[in-house]
């Protein structure tokens, strides 16, 4: 059973940056479109960004130009670089396969202070 482990969250001020990483066992990322998702307090989980096995990327409009999803083949991770963070980006961030999702991991908490 592949397990997803997210890391890299933390507390930053508005305008700051964080880089999140998602690790999984095996060559899971190279065979699957992967997504980052987030859940703000009291809200539904929402999609943030996706990277396909071919490396194509897409993201929700509210993070376009600020967030970048990438795959690090050397580390076997899927990363989310987040710049110019705002309090609206606060939430627990998760990664998962887009089309055949696994059990959700614990996520990593991102808190952006104003």
Description:
This protein is mainly beta and 114 residues long. Helix content is 4%, strand content 49%. Strands 2-10-9-4-5-6 form a 6-stranded mixed beta sheet, with no helix packed on it. The chain has a 4-stranded antiparallel beta sheet with strand order 1-3-8-7, with no helix packed on it. A hairpin with a 5-residue loop joins β5 (45-51) and β6 (57-59). The radius of gyration is 13 Å and the shape is globular.
Number of helices: 1
CA(first)-CA(last) distance: 40 Å
Helix content: under 10%
**Helix/strand order, N-terminal first:** EEEHEEEEEEE
How many strand segments?
Answer: 10
Short account of what is shown:
This protein is mainly beta. 4% of the residues lie in helices and 49% in strands. The protein contains one helix and ten strands.
Topology:
Layout (H helix, E strand, L loop, with lengths): L3 E4 L2 E4 L4 E7 L3 H4 L2 E6 L5 E7 L5 E3 L7 E6 L4 E6 L8 E7 L10 E6 L1
Parallel strand pairs: 2-10
Antiparallel strand pairs: 1-3, 3-8, 4-5, 4-9, 5-6, 7-8, 9-10
């Amino acid at each position: 059973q592949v397990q997803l482990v997210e890391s890299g969250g933390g507390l930053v001020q508005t305008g700051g940056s964080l880089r999140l990483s998602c690790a999984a066992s095996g060559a899971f990322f190279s065979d699957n479109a992967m997504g980052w998702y987030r859940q703000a307090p009291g809200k539904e989980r929402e999609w943030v960004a996706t990277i396909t096995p071919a490396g194509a990327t897409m993201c929700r409009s509210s993070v376009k130009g600020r967030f970048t999803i990438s795959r690090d083949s050397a580390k076997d991770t899927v990363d989310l670089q987040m710049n110019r963070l705002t309090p609206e980006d606060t939430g627990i961030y998760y990664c998962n396969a887009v089309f055949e999702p696994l059990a959700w991991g614990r996520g990593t908490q991102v808190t952006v202070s104003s």
